Amino acid sequence: xxxxxxNALLAGxxxxxxxxxxxxxxGLHAHSPRRFVAIGVxxxxxxxxxxxxxxxxxxxxxxxxxxxxxxxxxxVRFGVGAIGFLFVVLATLDLLNVRIExxxxxxxxxGVIVGIAAQQSLGNLAAGAVLLASRPFSLGQRVRIRAGSLxxxxxxxxxxxxxxxxxxxxxxxPVALPNLGLLSAAVGTLRDPVGNSIVHPAEMRNAxxxxxxxxxxx
Length: 218
Prior knowledge:
The structure is a single chain. This protein is an alpha+beta fold. Helix content is about 55%, strand content about 15%. Strands 4-3-2-1-5 form a five-stranded antiparallel beta sheet. Helix 1 (about 5-20) runs antiparallel to helix 2. The relative contact order is 0.10.
């Protein structure tokens, strides 16, 4: 299924028009009746901005879920929603002419500290996004992975593609591989003994092959 961001785009256009119309009205510091116009425009922008954000997050999560599973869909929905809602809040405060310089400064400092502390996790997140976009393998596909950082050669069925870890169901059991190491590994697809390169979890169960506890059942 192809992405459908039509509703998000329509709501975004209305929000953008309200944002442009409210620029320069003076916000809460303007004189009446201009002040009420500025407040009304800010309310319209906030309402349609929330609609656009929720619609975009829902559609992005649907597309991510088809490629990486439910865990990835939840993470993408949260990430898109958080970024969108943060922009709506900041832009609404700006329309109301509320000073946000100190808030932005505090957020920038906090972001730098969090970024340094979570450098490895952020690297895995970025690598997960690249894997979902480039799609070197898909859910249910048998792969062979070669990487010294991952402990050598790993073979198994891809059961989940998350933003931090990718789960592989091997003969010894399920293995969670960090996406940052997986991105730099050599990955090749394998054919199932019956001749299929894509192995669905239900078929694995019927064939009597072991399923890990993180196998995505379709």
